[in-house]
Specification:
The protein has about 475 residues and is α/β, with parallel strands linked by helices. It has 14 helices and 22 strands. Strands 14-17-18-13-12-19-20 form a 7-stranded mixed β-sheet, sandwiched between helices. α9 links the parallel β12 and β13. The longest helix has 22 residues.
Length: about 475
């Protein structure tokens, strides 16, 4: 990287220092500090807002082919450097290198996809009910978009927001999570090299109380796209409402994976391993509830425990590591607290629950499995964000689907079955935005809509062509010849 960590704010086309810095610690080896990264002041956030507001009309009027080339170049560079940037991402977030590299590659694909979408912005013609009048329906940019992204997918989640925002002619102010600033600065450096009009894209690092609140309470922001917790999402909705700022919220989840009585055991176990424990369970799409039919329960649990015992836990950059550390000490403490709560409810510990001391001092814990849990328990109703799953035994498919839906969330839900009838019924009745059949609950494609129901999501869907519903405004024009 060519940036200086202390000069990591990008406002109006220039790199700036902040009013303070925060240390970026490698969760795989807490003795390694990756840098001290600048924190923006409220005045600097306002400077970014002013710059974005000034630049947006120029960017929107930029010829389509130039916009397409800009987004394509960003995507191409991300993919070309996915080993390097994947190493950086894994170093600060803790996911194994294969996942870090894959995330950078996927982020590049988002930019490439929306580069193509730039050239597909077509309107509609309609006949008027009035003779001699023509009707044109077109889309225009929303304006200035504030993007608030999380630490668990620091580059991919940001990319699937930034890319469509730019593709459809908006200017962007990006506030990433403070736990993963290096990846944010790396992406910003790539965007900087494309020579966008100064202020089209801005990076403001900092806390939610300072930077985030300034953005969501501004009447000069036209839209806010947020991914994070339900509590913070609710604050975003409340803050943006008085100014009639459109908001898009991706929030919590409590995803369930159903193991039907005809499930292939190998498929069920592998889907569970990837859905529940990859990324240390720090995914909004992770399957933390395992809803298992009674007739297959014992066979599935035995096979799952055997497979869990083979998983290698360790430094994110070590070969063969399946699961790295959790992101920081607060997350680790929260996870251990949830383990205590589950056992306090009466859950039977089948595997894991340990904080691990490994070769490198880091925030390590073992993947954890509980048996004989009830769906109404807090551990099965609240998002935990840990490599922890709870088995809920049910009698039949009707009870399984009812259990899946018995939550305030509704992001993803999955089922393992060999029956077309069972899968069809589940796809129809699962109250989730995404449904997976014979697949992990974690893992989605970039060209189709992503989002949930209930308290998991609010506002238009993300990704694919559906993103234009948030990042554009529809205009209907009527004309009668002179």
């Amino acid at each position: 990287m060519t940036f200086e960590a202390e000069k990591a704010l990008y406002i109006a086309g220039e790199w700036q220092s902040g009013i303070s810095t925060v240390a970026n610690i490698n969760p795989s080896d807490i003795s390694q500090q990756l840098g001290n990264f600048a924190q923006a002041s409220q005045q600097q956030v306002q400077q970014a807002i002013d710059a974005a507001k000034t630049a947006q009309p120029e960017w929107e009027k930029t010829p389509l082919e130039h916009k397409q080339k800009v987004l394509q170049a960003i995507g191409d560079e991300l993919i070309a450097r996915c080993d390097e940037l994947g190493t950086l991402l894994s170093s600060e977030e803790g996911k194994p290198f294969a996942e870090g590299r894959g995330e950078i590659f996927r982020a590049g694909q988002f930019f490439q996809y929306y580069a193509a979408e730039v050239l597909r912005q077509m309107g509609d013609l309609a006949q008027s009910t009035r003779p001699g009048v023509s009707v044109e329906v077109s889309r225009e940019a929303v304006g200035v978009v504030a993007i608030i992204s999380p630490w668990n997918f620091p580059t991919a989640t940001a990319a699937w927001k930034i890319a469509p925002a730019l593709a459809f002619g908006n200017s962007v102010i990006w506030k990433p999570a403070n736990l993963t600033p290096a990846s944010a600065v790396a992406l910003t450096e790539i965007i900087h090299r494309q020579g966008l009009p100064a202020g089209t894209f801005n990076l403001v690092l900092g806390s939610g109380s300072e930077v985030g609140n300034t953005l969501i309470n501004s009447d000069q922001i036209n839209a806010v796209s947020f991914t994070g917790s339900v509590d913070t999402g609710r604050k975003v909705a409340i803050a943006t409402a008085p100014n009639f700022v459109r908001c898009q919220l991706e929030m919590g989840s409590k995803n369930a994976l159903v193991i039907a009585d005809d499930a292939d055991i190998h498929t069920a176990v592998e889907a569970t391993i990837m859905g529940s424990f990859s990324g240390a369970g720090q995914k909004c799409t992770a399957s933390s509830r395992l809803v298992v039919l009674d007739s297959i329960h014992d066979e599935y649990v035995d096979a799952l425990i055997k497979r869990m015992s083979t998983l290698k836990i360790g430094h994110a950059l070590q070969d063969g590591v399946f699961m790295g550390p959790v992101v920081d000490d607060k997350q680790l403490a929260s996870n251990m607290s949830w383990i205590d709560k589950a056992q306090g409810h009466g859950a039977e510990l089948a595997f894991g629950s340990e904080q691990l001391n490994l070769e490198h001092e880091g925030y390590y814990m073992s993947p954890t499995l509980f048996l004989n849990t009830k769906n109404g328990w807090d551990v099965n109703q609240e998002e935990v964000f840990a490599p922890m799953a709870s088995v809920i035994r049910v009698n039949d498919l009707d009870e399984a689907i009812a259990t899946v839906n018995d939550t305030r969330f509704g992001l993803t839900g999955g089922i393992i079955t060999q029956s077309l009838r069972t899968s069809a019924l589940f796809k129809q009745q699962a109250q989730t935005g995404c449904v997976m059949v014979n697949l992990p609950t974690a893992g989605t494609d970039y060209h189709v809509p992503f989002g949930g129901r209930k308290q998991s999501s609010f506002g238009p869907r993300e990704q694919g062509q559906y993103a234009k519903e948030f990042y554009t405004i529809v205009k209907t024009a009527y004309q009668r010849p002179y």
